Amino acid sequence: MTKICELRRPPRPKKQKKVGAIEVKEEKRCAGQHFLHIISTDDAIRLYDIMVEKNNDIKLINDEHIKPELNREQLEIMTGTKPHDVPRGSRSKEEDLPVLSTGRGSMQASHLCDSMHCIAKEHIVVESTEVNQSRRDCRGITLSIKPATTTSPPHIDIATPCRHEEPLAKCLELNEPIDFIKNIIKDALQDQCSFVVYDMQTEQLVGVCLNEIKFVDDQHIINEKNYFILHFLNQMHKNINLFQQFQTNSLLHIFIIDILKNYRDYGLGLQLISASIEHAKKIHVKGIYAEATNIYSLNCFKQQGFQSYDQINYTNYDQIRLANLIDSHESRCQLVARNV
Q1: How far apart are alpha carbons 169 and 114 in whole angstroms?
Q2: Which of 126, 136, 58 is closest to 97 using CA atoms?
Q3: Which GO terms of the molecular function aspect are on file (predicted)?
Q4: Is pTM, for the whole model, over 0.90?
Q5: Do the domain assignments include residue 40?
């Protein structure tokens, strides 16, 4: 049995939002930096194949040097707070990894394992300096394991994935995802219009819908660490003004909606969206919008009467950072909205 609950905290006066302009400075790129930004993924693969064939280095690849996955038995014996190695999660032994250039947004090649002479494609990636350096402090997947008792077997209670292996976090350069989420939750709690799904049997939160109230005159200084994703979302509104579309000064924004994997396909996402719509009616907000980042969330919004007003193809927006988002289910982001 699940229950939709409103996410609230004791009311307190709203702080005045800071107003400021976003200034983007174009950094001068070195030759290696420029090369990484202009070469396509297909060209890079062809170049890789030519180099491997020419130097006859394929014999150095050992397919057994890294395990492709951890089995259930291995997971169950992980207890306490001791860190454990995970596939493709080895840290560099060097203090600093080689770079092509420094500065925000610069790119470099990262080696994802410590095996000598490994040149496997899946263990080499081009990414930003910030993500590359953050690997040294990454502890991989964090698991909370409940040991076996007389009445129950051992089981995984909480699993927090490594952000370097989470596709959206990696592609969208969420270098500080915890701080990013904290800021979203802070705004959501302040506006008191978010909802969660609570499983009364297991006594745990299984779904969340973080909402905020946006006003026509809102202006924000974008944190440099979160610049890429927030600038990307702002581009969704470049060709349309939803405040003019719905003739209003305020809109409800569904920023994040997510359901635990084991609880999906039960319509909980639809219920969270419905609860948000009903709340918007109560507080007399005339419109509600969201950025649907994949086909699954898009279908949920369309079932609740949302229409698509604009869209951005990920690879058209940035062929370097979003190159991996080519699956038909997550190849574009759509701006959806409806009146209330």
Answers
A1: 23
A2: 136
A3: endonuclease activity; N-acetyltransferase activity
A4: no
A5: no
